[in-house]
Design brief:
5-stranded mixed β-sheet, Rossmann fold, 4 helices, alpha/beta, 144 residues
Length: 144
């Protein structure tokens, strides 16, 4: 039987306007990270490119997690990540939770989590050699 909202503590706090931190255990086939201090979302052309890339590997952009680390990075360790596969686009600063950032375009496995570091989507869009390197590294990857 479902409880009424008034009997669920975190909902009562939320309805009173208190901030409630609730960890999510939702899993995604892929976590995409980028860094854009100009806005929380990807610029439209970069989002369009990401959508084409995801369609190329059989994923809809709506089923992946896309996160701008300039605004938030709520994970303290890799075991908290909402996916076992991570593609990082153009992130220059080092996140202690991640393995080393080189080499780019080669999957790295750390404790069952796979990381791929790539150039920014803006750079990939204008440099065919980067687009080719990215495609070679992800085209046969099975992301579930």
């Amino acid at each position: 039987m479902l409880k009424p909202i008034k009997d669920i503590d975190f909902l009562k706090q939320l309805l009173r306007g208190e901030v409630v931190a609730q960890k999510s255990y939702i899993r995604f086939p892929l976590l995409v990270l980028f860094e854009n201090g100009q806005g929380e979302n990807l610029p439209p052309k970069e989002e369009e490119l990401l959508e084409k890339i995801m369609n190329g590997i059989g994923l809809n952009i709506d089923v992946i997690k896309v996160l701008n680390i300039a605004y938030t990075f709520p994970y303290q360790s890799i075991v908290e990540l909402p996916s076992n596969s991570v593609i990082s686009f153009g992130i220059e600063r080092k996140l202690p939770q991640f393995p080393i950032y080189e080499p780019k375009y080669i999957w790295q496995n750390r404790a069952g989590y796979e990381f791929l570091f790539a150039d920014s989507l803006a750079d990939i869009a204008i440099k065919p050699e980067l687009k080719s390197a990215l495609w070679k590294s992800i085209k046969d990857k099975k992301l579930q």
